[in-house]
Amino acid sequence: MVDFEFSEDEIRFRDSVREFAKRYIEPKWIEIDDQGKIPMELIKKIADQGLFAIPVPEEYGGMGGTMVMAALAVEEIAYHDPAVAIAVYTLLQNGWPLALALFGQEEAKMEILPKVASGDAFFGIGSTEPQGGSDVAGNKTVAKKVGDKWVISGEKAFISGVREIQELPEGGGFFLVAKTEKPGWSHTRITDFAVLPKWNGKIREEWKPTVYEEIGRHGLSTGGFTLENFEVDDKYRIGEVNKGFYLVLQGFNIARILVAAATIGSARWALDKAKEWLTTRKLFQGRPIASFEGVSFRYAELYTKVEAAKYFVYKAAWMTDNTYLTKSPRFKPQDLNLPVAMAKMMGPTTATEVYTEVLKWFGAYGYTKECSAHRGWLGTFSYTIGAEGAQNIMKYIIARDTLGSDAVRNVWVKEE
Amino acid sequence: MKVLVAVKLTYDINQLKFEKDGTPLLDACPRVMGEADKCAMEEAARIKDAGKAEEVVALTVGSSKEHQRILKDAYAMGATKAVAIKVNDPDNLSALTIATIIASFIKKTGPYDMILLGSGAGDTHSSVVGPMVASLLNMPLLANADRVKVEEDDITIVSTLEDGQYKFRSRTPAVVTVTSEANEPRIPTIRDILRSKKKPIDEISPEDLGVELSKVDLVDVKRYEVPRKRVKIDATDNVEEAVDQLIKALEQEGVI
User: Fold this and answer.
1) Are residues A249 and A234 in the same domain?
2) According to the model, what pLDDT value does residue A397 have?
3) Spatial contact of A125 and A255, defined as CB atoms under 8 Å apart
4) For residue B111, cis peptide bond before it (omega within 30 degrees of 0)
């Protein structure tokens, strides 16, 4: 039987996040976007509220919740932080910790996840490299086994959380993707590691970070780093050797759902702001702007698209819960590829479309810095470019899973 | 210490919308634990957190799914037990009936050292249930507390009256009504929420408490109305003059 209702627990949880975000995030989001930093005490507050590691089992310090709950939390936070820095920080602290909980080794999970859940450490994704992010199999960072340790060298680029790791009391690290033993294009020679450049408060010298300057969602840092003979204990290896490609793609699926949730939360805020404006702003002898069909019909289209994107997000989140948490035999990890790609394609694209229109509805005021809508525009636009998968990669996945891989593959690549 | 908190299911006034003529759209408004009741619950939770109370019983009159939900919220905030009074139409019971039910419950399951209630409900805001409970139980009443302090068997409150702030003190047991200014209620975490759903909610009927509903009056609320007055001040040409006009208008209304 189809049931489109959230459960009572999910509604109570969503309402609690709404109240939290209204009380602690809404009054600060503009200041955070201006200052380019989420205050450490706010990160701690979000953690104390139990909004990190939501779907991670309680035995690893997680909340024992679900991906649907994580998506609800991220959407609500993004509604109250439409520039989405805080929402994206939160989603990273849900998605990648879940991936570690699913695929990591027991000892590493017990060591890392409680510190992420408590907000004392950050755990994100370290996949993209200077030559690109979409071609994961083309990554050049190499991990070599030396004795009982792994020695990793390479360069990562456009990585979230590089500054936060340095500032958080415990530090943190990444679900890092490396080529096993030698470089070269291959998806069967990739191994994942939990790499912790700062841990127990100490920064490792083999890690050299830089932080970039970006055009939007300034509260969360993006940067790059090099690893030079960075030693990692085997306990931090995630999954089997050379199976890393398939595991990180599952991690991307989890995180993509939450990225889409963040963008629709922000888009909902923009539409609500626009509604206020369109129904009260009067022109042509007292007509509200909404009375012009050129405006109201466009509003109707965008409202519908945001609602549609929401369905994609929550269906994908529900499928993820069935796949990994309740382990329903009806779902396999690869079944997630299509619904997740559709959610990730719809969310950011719709949000950007909403903002482009909303800014125009606000007229010249929309183009001023005083009107805060541009912050949401720049923040959500980031996710049409990349972050857990570029839009064209989402389209490729959708085409591949519907038309068939032989029909759509236009680049034939060989293992090197 | 044993504390009882009476909470009411009421309209979420932050989400209440109105018709043009001022009629509130009640059917479209979500219902939640009253704001002042939440503050009463928060006071009880703080007393428990400070180690001064072992038991915090949350009570509501009504046992629908929504009533059960606010009791789960009370659990998530720190209640140790939750009880729903089974009545068919709690919204149409008079304040005296509600107070009689609460007082009867206290007599039957007590003694309690402290009875906390919100100073008024978000809908009717009659502010009489607390005083009535105190009267029915012949207990001291500390009303409209903006601050509450508990020391052993001694309760002190600060209450804001028209001519200033007053301190009132009483020995336990006492009835305390709490305003929505008293504290910032905690927001239950996901763990609190998930754990609260597994906790039991006891149900008791008024008959079990010796209260016969047929003998007490029922109130039928026909319509809520909020008096509204709109004063227009034109600030297009002269802002300073508009500010003076605004101050005068607010003074006339007795707002400042």
Assistant:
1) no
2) 93
3) yes
4) yes
Domain count for chain A: 3
Task: Tell me the C-alpha to C-alpha distance, in Å, between residue A14 and each of A6, A8, A17, A67, A119.
Answer: 10, 10, 5, 13, 20
Q: Which tens digits make up the pLDDT trace of A62-100?
A: 999 999 999 999 999 999 999 999 999 999 999 999 999
The pLDDT value recorded for residue B221 is 61
Residues 63-82 of chain B whose Cβ lies under 8 A from any Cβ of chain A: 65, 69, 72-73, 76
A197 and A315 share one domain: no
Total domains present in chain B: 2
Domain of A73, in residue numbers: 8-117
Domain co-membership, B209 together with B242: no
Residues A310 and A254 in one domain: yes
Query: Which of B193, B196, B197 is best to mutate for the A interface (most A CBs within 10 A)?
Result: B193
Same domain, B128 and B233: no
Beta bridge partners of A360: none
Q: How far apart are the first and last CA of chain B?
A: 42
Task: Report the residue of A15, A52, A76, A94 to disrupt the B interface, i.e. the one with the largest count of B CBs within 10 Å.
Answer: A15
> What pLDDT does residue A377 have?
96
Instruction: Give the distance from residue B256's alpha carbon to the nearest chain A alpha carbon, in angstroms.
Output: 26
Contact B122/B11 with Cβ under 8 angstroms?
A: yes
CB A9 within 8 A of CB B197: yes
pLDDT at position B223 is: 65
Chain B residues 146-205 within an 8 A CB cutoff of chain A? 184, 187-191, 193-194, 197
B chain contacts of residue A13, beta-carbon cutoff 8 Å = 190, 193
Residues A116-172 pLDDT 10s: 999 999 999 999 999 988 888 889 999 999 999 999 999 999 999 999 999 999 999
pLDDT at A372 over 90: yes
Asked if residue A2 is part of any domain, the answer here is: no
Residue A416 has pLDDT above 80, yes or no: no
Of the candidates A9, A23, A49, the beta carbon closest to that of B189 is on A49
Put simply, the answer to whether A65 touches B72 (Cβ < 8 Å) is: no
Cβ of A48 within 8 Å of Cβ of B189? The answer is yes
* Pair B167, B254 in one domain: no
ipTM, 2 decimals? 0.87
Pairing status of strand A282-283 against strand A287-288: antiparallel
Domain that holds residue B126: 2-225
Q: Is B152 helix (H, G, I), strand (E, B) or coil?
A: coil
**Are B49 and B78 members of one domain?**
yes
**Residue A9 is nearest to which of B187, B189, B194, comparing CB atoms?**
B194
List, for chain B, all residue ranges whose pLDDT scores fall below the cut of 50. Answer: none
Q: Look up the pTM and report it.
A: 0.90
Q: CB distance B189–A8 less than 8 Å? A: no
Assign residue A35 the CATH number of its domain: 1.10.540.10
Task: Please check whether residues B236 and B127 belong to one and the same domain.
Answer: no
Q: What CATH number corresponds to the domain at position B93?
A: 3.40.50.620
The per-residue pLDDT for A387 is 78
- Give how far A20 is from chain B: nearest CA, Å: 7
In terms of domains, do A54 and A144 share one?
no
* Burial class of residue B164 (count of CB atoms within 10 Å of its CB; 0-12, 13-18, 19+): exposed
Shared domain for A266 and A148, answered yes or no, is: no
| Residue carrying structure tokens 């994609």 | A312
